[in-house]
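Appendix B. One record, verbatim.
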Amino acid sequence: MADVVLLTGVSRYLGGRVARALSTSGAVRHVIGVDVVPPTHDIGDAEFVRADIRNPVISKIIASESVDTVVHMNVIATPTFVGGRASQKEINVIGTMQLLAACQKADTVERLVVKSSTTVYGSSPRDPAMFTEDMGPKRQPRAGFGKDSMEVEGYVRGFSRRRPDTAIHLLRFANAIGPVIRTSMTDYFTLPVIPTPLGYDARLQFLHEDDLVRAMVQSTVGTDEGIVNVAGDGVITLSQAVALVGRPSIPVIPPAAGMVGNIFKRFGLADYSPDQVSLLSYGRGVDTTRMREFFGFEPEYTTREAFESFAEAVRETGGQPTTRSA
């Protein structure tokens, strides 16, 4: 049972919500939120400590506070939110490496919870209908957030070998969506005209932002270990998603996707990256049997319901309803 929890990425929207939920749950005695900038949102009764997990000083915080549970949420999905790809990779990969090195030194750390992503499965025309946790990608992500996520998981596996006494729970989340959260995917679906890959209609899975927070809290205060896929029931096709947000679309041939993406990035409209283009072309589905039967978690929203909550906010505001980057 978690007693003193250290939570990374607390100044970001999801990290702040998890900090608030944990600190007010009554299941944890003390929550320490760590980030490089102070949060601008309510983090409940959590204590904020300004620190960079890329700096070895994180070891002193873990030791001085006798942290027994570390929750790692500071893995950034969208480079435009942190100043570009170089900063994103440094935060994700170097930050994780330093954090795990600190955990390895600390005798008090008994549990590690890591927020990962289904992007580790990649997207290709050879993919199975549903990926289970034991499957690997048919085509490995070669750049961007997907590659970072694979490297993060590699460091976590190395940590588990060096510290077999530490319980590790790694949650692979489908794309989070909802009325408030802002991601590269919500930016894409709020473009004035949505470019879609010509000749494809991908199957997509989503997880409502509220369900992601619930899953992180349940994992933190629980005893589950291993890897688990977390996604809402069912799938939605790209064409159905575009219809729900009520935006016009334009088919784009695959060779032109890179040029279109560069235009969007230049004007700060969306991160239309190669891995996102692959997802929008081939889709991705993950099996959630382990989530239900072993983790005991049941999302309150299906994939379609999660996307509809986002689409409703878009229609009501006539634009981008999300103001908090994940």
